[in-house]
């Protein structure tokens, strides 16, 4: 069973560089993405900035719809589709910002929203790189 996804969960592409002083615990999630299990978005941002690196937050929201209740399997399926969108954006992290259970004509569905994040040493945004200068 994949790890639990909730609001504040941060995903990171495998192989993303981060400061040596940071201790990141990550679990494999889907293909080339890992779930950061010891830190949410705010805590990760503080750790990265304290190490002298940058964690960018992209304003554009990514969204996917998943049919069914907002349970583990439905969220996992929607999250896999979200990670495809995130990979295409070129950024190396993703933060889940909303999981909303909805109904349409009695049929349950959920909306999963997230924002791209990007860890890198440089203060100039360079998507598509793994985090090094």
Number of domains: 1
Q: How many strands, what sense, and barrel or not for the largest sheet?
A: 6 strands, antiparallel
Q: Which segments are poorly predicted (pLDDT under 50) over 5 or more consecutive residues?
A: none
Assembly state:
single chain
Number of strands: 6
Overall SS class: alpha+beta
The overall pLDDT, averaged over residues, is: 89
Count of DSSP-assigned helices: 2
Roughly how many Å is the radius of gyration? Answer: 15 Å
In the sheet with the most strands, the strands line up as 2-3-1-5-6-4
Q: Indicate the proportion of strand residues.
A: 35-45%
Strand-and-helix sequence, N→C?
EEEHEHEE
What can you tell me about this protein's structure?
The chain is an alpha+beta fold. The chain has helices at 41-50, 72-89; strands at 10-13, 26-30, 33-36, 54-67, 93-104, 107-120. It has one domain. It is built from two helices and six strands. It is elongated. The termini are far apart.
